[in-house]
Specification:
This protein is an all-alpha fold. It has 2 domains: about 100 residues, Cytochrome Bc1 Complex, Chain D, domain 2, CATH 1.10.760; about 90 residues, Cytochrome Bc1 Complex, Chain D, domain 2 (Orthogonal Bundle), CATH 1.10.760.10. Helix content is about 50%, strand content about 0%. It is built from 13 helices and no strands. α2 crosses α3. The radius of gyration is 25 Å and the shape is elongated. The termini are far apart.
Length: about 260
């Protein structure tokens, strides 16, 4: 009988204990699901719901209004492990002839002295995809579009095979530097995957370029283009989702790090 009275709402001590526990739980939820996610974000969250979703490990939305799809695919290239056949000497030779038109920007041996991306040693699938995207206008460039407009699919495969065949040289000595956290681990709270999971040389992910040693100005420009949505040829918006919440400082740090590798 006394036990029943102890757990009754008429018992002020029981009622007070329940209310106190509820208050503590509410405050904890607000701190864990709202205050901390907002404090760690680069900008204020657009909504309370997004804060809660991010704290729970599930992004509330994958696209900002600037990145909404317009019904057009980001690329018409189907990326898969078997998208490129093994290159033979004939294909590499044809690619070397075609590449004579590319030397002004990309260098005689695929290493650019002018801030353009280095193509030597890049995976053939990565170079091929970008050429296809330039031709289909999925990646905009006033310089590249006229150059690739008349290339056949075989031409683009030959060019990709040639540049993959070239040895990757360095135009400057690598810099001894600390690996940024975003490269090693990413930032799960902001839906940012580790850069190394796609762009490390040993990963060999289809159509993903190697970033080591690329010009800092080029890397910085492309990261900003993905962040503001002006570059949209990433499959399933992977890059746009990865960088859309990065700060200017983080973008500059990543560009500087990969350029110095």
């Amino acid at each position: 009988m006394n036990a029943e009275k102890s757990f009754s709402l008429k018992n002020r001590w029981f009622t007070g204990s329940v209310l106190a526990l509820l208050a503590i739980a509410l405050v904890s939820a607000l701190v864990g699901f709202v205050w901390i996610p907002r404090a760690q974000a680069r900008d204020a969250m657009v909504s309370l719901w997004e804060s809660i979703c991010r704290a729970a490990g599930a992004p509330g939305q994958y696209y900002t209004p600037a990145l909404e799809e317009t019904g057009r695919r980001s690329s018409n290239v189907i990326v898969m492990a078997q998208m490129m056949a093994p290159a033979d000497s004939a294909s590499i030779g044809r690619g070397a002839t075609l590449a004579m038109r590319c030397t002004m920007c990309h260098g005689a041996r695929g290493m650019s002295p002018a801030g353009s991306p280095h193509l030597a040693g890049q995976p053939a699938a990565a170079t091929y995809k970008q050429l296809r995207d330039y031709k289909s206008d999925h990646r905009a460039s006033a310089i590249m579009r006229p150059l690739v407009e008349e290339l056949s699919d075989e031409n683009m495969r030959d060019l990709a095979a040639y540049y993959a065949y070239l040895p990757r040289e360095r135009l400057s000595d690598p810099i001894d530097q600390h690996t940024p956290r975003l490269v090693r681990n990413g930032d799960p709270m902001r839906n940012v995957g580790a850069c190394a999971s796609c762009h490390a040389i040993e990963v060999k992910k289809p159509a993903s370029p190697w970033l080591d040693g690329l010009p800092e100005s080029y890397l910085h420009q492309q990261l900003l283009a993905f962040r503001d949505g002006t570059r949209r040829n990433d499959v399933n918006a992977q890059m746009r989702n990865a960088v859309r919440n990065l700060s200017d400082q983080e973008v500059a740090e990543l560009a500087r790090y990969y350029a110095g590798k």
